[in-house]
Amino acid sequence: MRRTIETALLSFGNYAKENNIPIIANAGWQENSDKPCDTGSSIEELSKEFPEVDFSRVDQVWPEKNRNSEKAKKYWYTKESIMQRGEDVLKEIEAKVWPEMEEGKAVIAVSHSGFLRAGVTGWWFNNGDYRIFEFEEREVKEGRPTLKQITGVNGGMGESFETPAGLGGDLPEAAVGGLSVGLP
């Protein structure tokens, strides 16, 4: 979470402060793997380092990703968990934020390329990349919300692949004995 907070503050911090826009931490947007560099720091530590960020909505499970912990299942490095987490963050925006959005306003989600690619959008992201999406209209709000990219495929630094990656494509099917593995 530290890397995304630093990116958010460097990119939007002054604008957010000047316009009274909250920067809200959300554990759902964290990186996929359970390696130490992707497991995060405690909220106590982060809130001292970044007092301008609202941590009140961060899941109490954070930063737990241990595959022996059933409560941390939604953060496991498995295809099922990452795909579900991607669906959950999209549904949260679609249900709670999108309906009340004013014309010309936006939600900015600062996250990690692996999660954005494999769990949320199905598009490649390079460092410093950005893309703009809208929700596809749908009558019934069941299942996974569908995103429509409204910018060209070259985002922030213009170095991303121009072909879609597909959702969940390279994620491990299951976690076994501390290792994530693909199953036939």
Could you please describe the fold and organization of this structure?
It is a single chain. With 184 residues, this protein is of the alpha+beta class. It has 4 helices and 6 strands, in the order H-E-H-E-H-H-E-E-E-E. It has helices at residues 2-18, 43-49, 79-97, 113-121, and strands at residues 23-24, 53-54, 133-135, 147-149, 174-176, 179-181. The strands form 3 sheets. It has a two-stranded parallel ribbon with strand order 1-2. It has a two-stranded antiparallel ribbon with strand order 3-4. A two-stranded antiparallel sheet has the order 5-6. Helix 3 (79-97) crosses helix 4. The longest helix has 19 residues, at 79-97. The two termini are 33 Å apart. Mean pLDDT is 85; it is low at 179-184.
Shape: globular
Elements, N to C (H/E): HEHEHHEEEE
Q: Taking Cα atoms only, what radius of gyration do you get, to the nearest Å?
A: 17 Å
Put simply, the count of helices is 4
Q: Identify low-pLDDT runs.
A: 179-184
Main sheet overview: 2 strands, parallel
Strand content: 5-15%
Write down the overall mean pLDDT. 85
- Going across the major beta sheet, what is the strand order? 1-2
Structural class: alpha+beta
* Overall helicity: 25-40%
User: Could you give the count of β-strands?
Assistant: 6
Termini gap: 33 Å
